[in-house]
Amino acid sequence: MKTLRVAAAVLNQTPLDWAGNLSRIREAIEQARAAEVGILCLPELCIPGYGCDDAYQSPGVQQTSIELLEELLPATQGLAVSFGLPVVHRKALFNAVATVVDGELLGLVAKRNLAGDGLYYEPRWFKPWPVGALDTVALGARRVPIGDLIFEVDGVAFGYEICEEAWVAQRPGAVLAERGADLVLNPSASHFAFGKQEIRRRFVLEGARAFGVGYVFANHLGNASGRMIFDGGAMIADSTGLLAEGPRFSFRDVQLTTAVLDIDDLRMRQVRVASFAPEVEVRQGARVRVDGLRLPSAPPVAALVRDPVDPCADPDPCLESREEEFTRATSLALFDYMRKSVSRGAVVSLSGGADSAAVACLTSLALRLAAGELGLDGMRAKLAALGLPEGDLDAIVHALLLCVYQATRNSSDTTREAARAVAEGAGAEFLVLDVDALVEGYVERVEEAIGRPLTWERDDLALQNVQARVRSPGVWMLANLRGALLLSTSNRSEAAVGYATMDGDTSGGLSPIAGIDKAFLRRWLRWLEVEGPVGHGPIPQLAAVNALAPTAELRPSEAEQTDEGDLMPYDLLDAVERAAIGAKKTPIEVFQLMRPTFPAIAPQQLALWVERFFRLWSRNQWKRERYAPSFHVDDENLDPKTWCRFPILSGGFEREIQELRDHVEGLETSER
């Protein structure tokens, strides 16, 4: 019986952090050696980090990646390890995986299917490797094979599907299986999105079953470069099912997931498949063998009580709760952003509303969940560069999170006390600034300059916006005094229609909730009030915020201003956004889709709201271009820098809106 322990590592790498990336790779290798692993799969582009963007095309980045690979060779004594790095060959740059066995570089496999949609821009930097091509490439002082290779070590054959290659119809794994591969390694950089782990599970399980191989999936972890969140979740499977699955959203730098594979059993299961047609004639040079190395032996599989992981009984709470998944992903992203940017905490302009409450609570949870996993000393070690104060966790949260309520004459005692309650529940320091005199100072000076008084009837928008903008300098000043990160509080629903004041509530260096819609945020806050994340519990002080109707509170109180009164119901707004922007439907098509979904809304009113959305969307692209970086949490993002392109200047859907008006007028005529 031939058995082998394999491992997949998830790493919290940072683009171009050469010393840190090297250290974390070494730690993964040492953990694998201690676990008597024979073959270790590391994530895609793990040496320079995933997310270097145009820096991949720097000769210095390529050269340094090769130099670090050379440094890592001696660390691989006695085992096989995959390393991801960019490689130049014949005037083209390739996203490659280097296979190193027992200190020797055997060869490179370059990615054939590049990720070029959504968040990914790999075709901007890399070229796809031609299917079936083989060549040699100079790497340092040696020449090694590059191409569609299979590697054989101690009688075990393995090849690669690199990230995107597992998501395409013609998977390289099928060819690897025909050529006799026992294992398929998948070094990935697969970003987090709601529900995505289930999709990954399916391609891992289907790859193992259909190809008759052991399948090893490794991934990145944490906030690597600012916007993308990597959730880890390494997996190992064979044709019997999922054998091991690593944790997601860990605050640790390295997580190793291992399993023992019965190589003989893998082969015999494939022998019994009548439709399997092996490739008998192997192309010259397509297989690289290592002679003389014996990989570490593993215990017999039967002795391991080796029941495949049951996905239905998975203890990961995120698989059952979108609220839990959002909490874990965004908290990890905030924690990493804070420490990697060396920001001494965060400042939030707390209005007493849902959005700023969500940002404050997420910041608190980032610190508390990190301490829950790492321990207080472990969290202190990761945040050492921030200069944490002495004391317990509550003292650290209080020192790193400042919430500021900024009042004008239009602010109410209700929102002030709601803000105070949220700050208390989050454990933040809380300040109140009265900025009404500043607002009036600007109003008086403008009135004097233009020679007339400003009135709400004539100057509504300007009078609203000056209040939001006046709040920005003070909160920026507090952030500067602390060396802290100012977090802006605008959400995706507001971004879609421009319901935000530039240089007001959009002020900040990071916009943590700009990728999530308002309807979900309100649902998440209710969940956080009564339930909360596993291991932490609820924040009951959110009751004060959850009881209020969302309002900008910029008009006089007698106006009874609400967000939905200014715009439309948020559930409708979010549904229209998904249809118009996500599905690229025209105004009349959106109207037709919304009618059965919102039957209580009169057709004329529904048409007005659909028209309002399209006009506001096209008018406010410039605002979305100016938003601070936001986290990607689903595949409905509006970030024009990474996901959703739209012209700043456009025709504004005039023809399409007129078609909608004509359609509704026809409906009115037919109903008379």
Overall description:
With about 675 residues, this protein is α/β, with parallel strands linked by helices. About 40% of the residues lie in helices and about 20% in strands. It has 21 helices and 21 strands. The strands form five sheets. Strands 15-14-11-10-9-8-17 form a seven-stranded mixed β-sheet, covered by helices on one side. Mean pLDDT is about 90; it is low at about 305 and about 310-315.
| Gap between N and C termini | 82 Å
Instruction: Give the strand content.
Output: 15-25%
What is the number of helices? Answer: 21
Main pleated sheet? 7 strands, mixed
The radius of gyration over CA amounts to: 28 Å
Strand arrangement within the widest β-sheet reads 15-14-11-10-9-8-17
What is the approximate shape? globular
Q: Helix proportion of residues, in percent?
A: 40-55%
The SS-based structural class is: alpha/beta
What's the average pLDDT? 92
**Uncertain stretches:** 303-307, 310-314
Instruction: Please count the beta strands (DSSP E, at least 2 residues each).
Output: 21
Structure summary:
With 672 residues, this protein is an alpha/beta fold.
Descriptors:
single chain, about 675 residues, alpha/beta, seven-stranded mixed beta sheet, six-stranded mixed beta sheet, 21 helices, 21 strands, about 20% strand, globular
List the helices and strands and how they pair.
Elements: E1 3-11, H1 18-34, E2 39-41, H2 59-72, E3 80-89, E4 92-101, E5 104-110, H3 122-125, E6 134-139, E7 142-147, E8 150-153, E9 156-160, H4 172-178, E10 183-187, H5 196-211, E11 214-218, E12 221-223, E13 229-231, E14 235-238, E15 241-245, E16 254-262, H6 263-271, E17 287-290, H7 322-340, E18 346-349, H8 354-382, H9 393-400, E19 401-407, H10 413-426, E20 429-434, H11 436-450, H12 456-482, E21 485-487, H13 492-497, H14 518-530, H15 543-546, H16 563-566, H17 570-582, H18 587-597, H19 603-619, H20 621-626, H21 654-671
Parallel strand pairs: 1-2, 2-3, 8-17, 9-10, 10-11, 18-19, 18-21, 19-20
Antiparallel strand pairs: 1-16, 3-4, 4-5, 6-7, 8-9, 11-14, 12-13, 14-15
